[in-house]
Amino acid sequence: MAKLDLRVRAFAWLFAHTPGGSVDTMTPEQIVRAQEMLAEHGRLTTGVTGKLAKGVLTQDRVLEQAGERVPVRIYRSAHQPVGSPIVVYFHGGGWTLGALDHSDWLSSQVCLGVGAVVVSVDYRLAPLHRFPTAVQDSLAAVTWVAEHAGELDADGGRIAVMGDSAGGNLAAVVSQVLRDRGGPDIAHQALLYPATDLRTPEHFDTAAPARTDWPILSSAIMVTFRDQYLGPDGDADSPMASPILAEDLTGLPPALIQVAEYDPLRDDGIRYARALQHAGNQVRLTEYVGMPHGYFSFPMVIRGSVRQALAEVCAEQRLALHPVPEPDRGPRPLPETIRSTSDAARDTVGGGAVDPAASRPIGDHEIGQHPIPQHHASSSGH
């Protein structure tokens, strides 16, 4: 395994002593107070969670769909083209924590990187609103976006979903439910270190390294999140809670699944990727070594591979949401200025066509032309 950065370990200790960090020791009432504190002071954490990207505008509104009222934050660039695709994002936090402010960095970066309108969903949280309330809010948000895309100056026919941790669980469930309902169609699902199996720990292989305790998310915190979300009446065997347990995994949107090496949920993502692939779906699975759970929530502290992970998310969703015409694989037209080139410069393999680059003179290579300064240790040993 890659070495866990000292800065990550130090931050994990601090995180465990902040509101929401030690959720496994909290009562339901304390969790609700932590929710309120995080929601009220979310912008004070930008040194950890990151700021809104320059050139991105936001709008907060409440969506009304099928009797549900769902708060959202809409991100668009200052020069967003009309008819842009849409990415609907579900934040992490174990279905019990999280606020819109904490997702400004990721949502605004995806807005710019994908060239899409991003809608971040402020679904209701446990323990006041238990399973399946978060699923219902998420489905209502995606359905509203598809039906009212014109109000966003966006294209309701090009929608992707994205979520991290508990939000990855919701994105996976939404993709399955909408497939079963016959739409709206989802073009892509980005599942970032998702929780895909909420069954009790007895079902897990406790000897597996992926289930050991790591910084940011321990097994105890993970079980507490699950218990607060499901409550006494929730069914962990339901595919709406554990999407990996769905009887039919065929016909789902192309998926990007990212997992972190130091994460008790690592095998959740890997198992779900394999299940999707076995069912015939298009899947890309990437493990970010040396990274802990929740790396997108702390980009200013846990830097490591976060930028590369973000680039991968944007590239995959951009490819799915901005389809291009079938490339022309025929012979390249021969420019008039090249037609008179001598036969010696012609590419006979290409049927006589000339590659302009092949007929140019090759200049001297830069390497070796400049002296490299030598550094010597001083006699004092410093």
Written overview of the protein:
This protein is of the alpha/beta class and 382 residues long. It has a single domain (6-321), classed as Rossmann fold (3-Layer(aba) Sandwich). The protein contains nine helices and eight strands. The protein has helices spanning 6-16, 28-40, 46-49, 104-115, 133-147, 166-181, 219-230, 266-278, 306-321, and strands spanning 56-65, 68-77, 84-90, 117-121, 154-164, 188-192, 255-262, 283-292. The chain has an eight-stranded mixed beta sheet with strand order 1-2-4-3-5-6-7-8, with helices on both faces. Residues 340-382 have low confidence and may be disordered.
Number of helices: 9
Mean pLDDT: 84
Helix content: 25-40%
Give start-end ranges of low-pLDDT stretches.
Answer: 340-382
Look at the structure and name the CATH superfamily: Alpha/Beta hydrolase fold, catalytic domain
- Which band does the percent of strand residues land in? 15-25%
**Which overall shape is indicated by the principal axes computed on the Cα atoms?**
globular
Which sequence of strands runs across the widest sheet? Answer: 1-2-4-3-5-6-7-8
Number of domains: 1
Instruction: Specify the biggest β-sheet.
Output: 8 strands, mixed
- Kindly name the structural category: alpha/beta
Query: CATH first level: which class?
Result: Alpha Beta
- Amino- and carboxy-terminal Cα gap: 33 Å
Instruction: Encode the helix/strand succession as letters.
Output: HHHEEEHEHEHEHEHEH
Number of strands: 8
